[in-house]
């Protein structure tokens, strides 16, 4: 892979690359739609991601090229940049803009990207591009940012330059991921703990519905608003700043404060899902994969029935997984409304699983899913 990319770089730019970097994609193992409620999430890095090869040039320009997209950009080094259109190169351009905004010096650079993450699949291809670019710029220009600084800068790119109002989990997992470990991350404080996640004789299967998820077209903002309504109702009797400041038992004692039945369902999911993350961390740490799998199924059921962010495609995948002997647990991952599901699948059963779920899904939905096997990988690195 890397040798082939190096050859392509030389052919495209007429010089050899000087540096090479990799940032993974991520999945969230459990803890969905609670990041904006001050809760705990448990993402991990995966072994698919984004490669970036670079070399300085003497022309005073940035050249952006990708093996995945036809669009290219050549733009002079200047004091600031603005987003233009919806092309992929806005993500690295935004990173450079925010480096400049913080007074960092940069110079002409040739960049070649290659990603093996499906676009629009909830595996954080955008965060992967942002973090690999930020990490590369930091190394090449000796900018002195810490890894957490780079995470915050990348989130700022997503929010302010690209214009997507997402949380920090994606960039955090892409940067801080550790091999065979999940990150129990407090989205409110950014405190985290690396939890042992040895999958043993299991693969982490990623099943792409091939129904692209577009946050701007989803009901994401509606869910955020419903959670804020629930929080305000509970604050009449409880001194809390976030829904995830309470556990299930406290919620049950005060749930009558929430008059709207739909808002009540949303809040119930958030509080119970946060408790599931705590249980899941303990199960993984004690190598109780069967218990972890049970929590994955419970998480999906809650997202399907209480939070209502799933859909027939994701539900079809999880329905199949519940009846397949080689699966220990499965759930949708990411914001929902399409994208991907994940499953813990025994390695010995994976080929059979891949064929049978493809047939089952195709018969129900009318087109095939994409099925990948992954292990839990490391965060951003220089190669």
Automatic annotation (TrEMBL):
Pfam hit, one: GHMP_kinases_C
Membrane spanning residue stretches: none
A single BP term in Gene Ontology: galactose metabolic process
Enzyme Commission number, as recorded: 2.7.1.6
Record-annotated active site: 170 (proton acceptor)
Residue intervals of the GHMP kinase N-terminal domain: 90-177
Keywords: ATP-binding, Carbohydrate metabolism, Cytoplasm, Galactose metabolism, Kinase, Magnesium, Metal-binding, Nucleotide-binding, Transferase
Signal peptide range: none
Binding residue positions for ATP: 66, 120-126
Domain GHMP kinase C-terminal: 280-357
Catalytic activity field: alpha-D-galactose + ATP = alpha-D-galactose 1-phosphate + ADP + H(+)
Cellular component, GO, one term: cytosol
UniProt superkingdom: Bacteria
Principal location: cytoplasm
Site positions (Transition state stabilizer): 26
Binding-site positions, Mg(2+): 126, 158
Binding site for substrate: 32-35, 220
Entry-linked Gene3D superfamilies: 3.30.230.10, GHMP kinase, C-terminal domain
Listed GO MF terms: ATP binding; galactokinase activity; magnesium ion binding
Cellular localization per UniProt: Cytoplasm
Family, as annotated: Belongs to the GHMP kinase family. GalK subfamily.
Protein purpose: Catalyzes the transfer of the gamma-phosphate of ATP to D-galactose to form alpha-D-galactose-1-phosphate (Gal-1-P).
Name of the protein described by the UniProt record: Galactokinase
Species this chain originates from: Arcticibacter tournemirensis
């Amino acid at each position: 892979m890397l040798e082939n990319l190096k050859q392509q770089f030389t052919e495209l730019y007429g010089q050899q690359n000087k540096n090479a970097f990799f940032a993974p994609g991520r999945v969230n193992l459990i803890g969905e739609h609670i990041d904006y409620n001050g809760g705990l999430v448990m993402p991990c890095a995966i072994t698919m991601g984004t490669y970036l090869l670079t070399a300085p040039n003497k022309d005073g320009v940035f050249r952006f090229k990708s093996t995945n997209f036809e669009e290219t950009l050549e733009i002079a080094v200047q004091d600031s940049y603005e987003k233009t259109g919806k092309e992929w190169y806005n993500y690295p351009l935004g990173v450079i803009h925010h480096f400049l905004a913080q007074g960092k010096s940069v110079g002409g650079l040739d960049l070649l990207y290659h990603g093996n993450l499906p676009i629009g699949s909830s595996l954080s291809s955008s965060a992967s591009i942002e973090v690999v670019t930020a990490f590369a710029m930091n190394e090449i220009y000796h900018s002195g940012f810490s890894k957490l600084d780079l995470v915050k800068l990348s989130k700022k790119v997503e929010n302010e330059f690209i214009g997507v109002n997402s949380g920090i989990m994606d960039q955090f997992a892409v940067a801080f991921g550790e091999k065979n470990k999940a990150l129990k991350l407090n989205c409110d404080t950014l405190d985290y703990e690396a939890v042992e996640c040895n999958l043993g004789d299991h693969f982490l299967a990623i099943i792409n519905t091939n129904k692209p998820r577009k946050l701007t077209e989803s009901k994401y903002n509606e869910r955020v608003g419903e959670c804020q309504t629930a929080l305000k109702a509970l604050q009449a009797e409880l001194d809390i700043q976030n829904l995830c400041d309470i556990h299930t038992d406290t919620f049950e004692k005060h749930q009558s404060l929430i008059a709207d039945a739909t808002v009540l369902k949303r809040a119930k999911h958030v509080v119970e899902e946060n408790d599931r993350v705590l249980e899941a961390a303990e199960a993984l740490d004690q190598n109780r994969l069967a218990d972890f799998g049970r929590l994955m199924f419970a998480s999906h059921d809650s997202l399907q029935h209480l939070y209502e962010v799933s859909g027939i495609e994701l539900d079809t995948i999880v329905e199949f997984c519940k009846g397949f002997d080689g699966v220990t647990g499965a759930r949708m991952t990411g914001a929902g409304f399409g994208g991907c599901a994940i499953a813990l699948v025994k390695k010995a059963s994976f080929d059979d699983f891949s064929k049978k779920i493809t047939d089952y899904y195709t018969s129900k939905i009318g087109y095939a899913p994409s099925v990948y096997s992954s292990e839990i990988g490391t965060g951003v690195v220089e190669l």
